[in-house]
Structures are given as C-alpha cells and as structure tokens.
Amino acid sequence: WIASSDGLFHFDGEKCYHYGSDQGLSFYISKIWKDDRSRLWLSSGSELIILDIKSGLIKIIKQAEGKVQYNFTSLLQGSKDEIWAGTYDDGIYIINENKGTIKHFTRRHKLSGNNIWSMMKDSKGRIWIGEDFNGVDIIDQTNHLIRHCKDGIFQDNTIYSLFESEPGVIWIGTGEYATVLDMNLNTISHLNNDSG
Predict the structure, then answer these.
(1) DSSP β-ladder status, 187-191 and 178-182
(2) pLDDT at 63
(3) Are 162 and 144 in contact (CB under 8 A)?
(4) CA distance 124 to 120
(5) Contact, 130 vs 139, CB < 8 A?
(6) How distant is the alpha carbon of residue 192 from its chain centre?
(7) DSSP state letters, 110-173
(8) pTM greater than the 0.70 cutoff
(9) How far is CA 29 from its chain centroid?
(10) Positions of the chain with pLDDT under 70
C-alpha cells in the first residue's frame, strides 16, 4: 500500500491498483495504518478514512463533525479498540470506533506540546510521541504516567520518526541525527552522516 498525492495505490506483487475519487477517497493520502481487523486507516488533511479491504466499505471521520479539526501527521493503534491520531497543532485524538468516542489529548493533559510528528508503541505497550521542538513523551497507560524526554538526550528536539528495532532498542529520527536509546544496556548513541 502506497500513500500519495494522487490517492492510494496497492501493489499485489504483479499489478498496481489505484484507489481515488472513483472509490470515494480523497486525492491526497499522507499516512496509512493497518489495524488489527485488517482495515486501513488513512489520513488526508483533516479527514480520517477507514477502508475495509475485504468489503471495500469506506467510512470517513471529517472535520465537519466538529471533533477533529487539524491535519493528521501520524497514526497508531493504541489498544485493541483505539486508534491514536496525532495532529500538527492540536495534540492527539484517541478514537474508539466501537464505543463511538473521541478523546482529545493535548498540552492541557500533560503532553509537552501539541505538534505531533510521530508515534510508536513499544514492546512494553508504552506509547512514544515525537513532537516538534519538544522531544519525546512516553506514556505508560498502565500506571497513567507521562515521562518527558528532551534536553540533553537528543541533538535536535524535533522528532520525525520512532522505531523499536528489537525490545528495548529505540531509534529516534530528528532533522540531522538518529539517536539510539538502548534501554537494555543503558546507552545513548547519536548518529549522523559523519558517523558513517
């Protein structure tokens, strides 16, 4: 599956299929997340689109509904029934489709900031949130704790990407550096073009 400014493309190994306005999709698709029910969650500006791959059914959560108002920058499945949608300028929306609820999580709720670039769920179930100028927030949902990681840890506090390569080893991408946190060895490494 490929998100593009011309809709959604699917390559099955032999053929490439296009999903666009004829199928009810917006042209510009910026992010894709596949949930545990094999549905695709797509972000397109201020819309979230849920595409059921098997049935072809599409559900759109729009800005016009008054609950979701900003451009989506990242998607993540938090728990079985929750999709987290990060925005630029309005924090995170936690959507529980089964209950029909949308929770809004912002700086008022202890996030470091409202400008979210990336999110990741680690092997311990914690949610890592990469922010613009504010480093990383780590949310432990079990204990309802938020840990803020910023000054002195990263070379740049704008976090564009998060990835766990193996349990306890987190790669954090910034504008010029990659920071590798190895929580098993309690080490921090900074890599850039000069590192090789």
Answers:
(1) antiparallel
(2) 52
(3) no
(4) 11
(5) no
(6) 24
(7) T-S-SBEEEEEE-TTSPEEEEESSS-EEEEETTTTEEEEE-TTT-SSS---EEEEEETTEEEEE
(8) yes
(9) 14
(10) 62-70, 195-196
